[in-house]
Design goal:
By secondary structure, this protein is an all-alpha fold. The protein has 2 domains: 1-48, no CATH class; 72-101. It contains 2 helices and no strands.
Length: 101
Amino acid sequence: MEEISKRGWLKNGNPPGDPNSAPRCGAKTRKGTPCMAPAMKNGRCRLHGGKSTGPRTPEGKERSRKANWKTGYYSKEEKEQRRRFSQLMRDCKEFLKEIED
């Protein structure tokens, strides 16, 4: 008699029952062999599911833009302020050089 174990639902939308019967990812690995991890609904495993396409709505884009804001070092205003300061320092060095001569 074949023993049927009750294992419950599998992750990522795979059917219950034998986990070995779940469809496989099949993505090409760095070794060149197909990935044998169980596939999700999109046909790939959690590691080979593909890159995110990023936010699409204006609200999502704005949220994403602000998500990694730490210091503002590369903001438009900060870059312009550094450019002005660098120009001021060059002008000061040039002026001091003229005075010494």
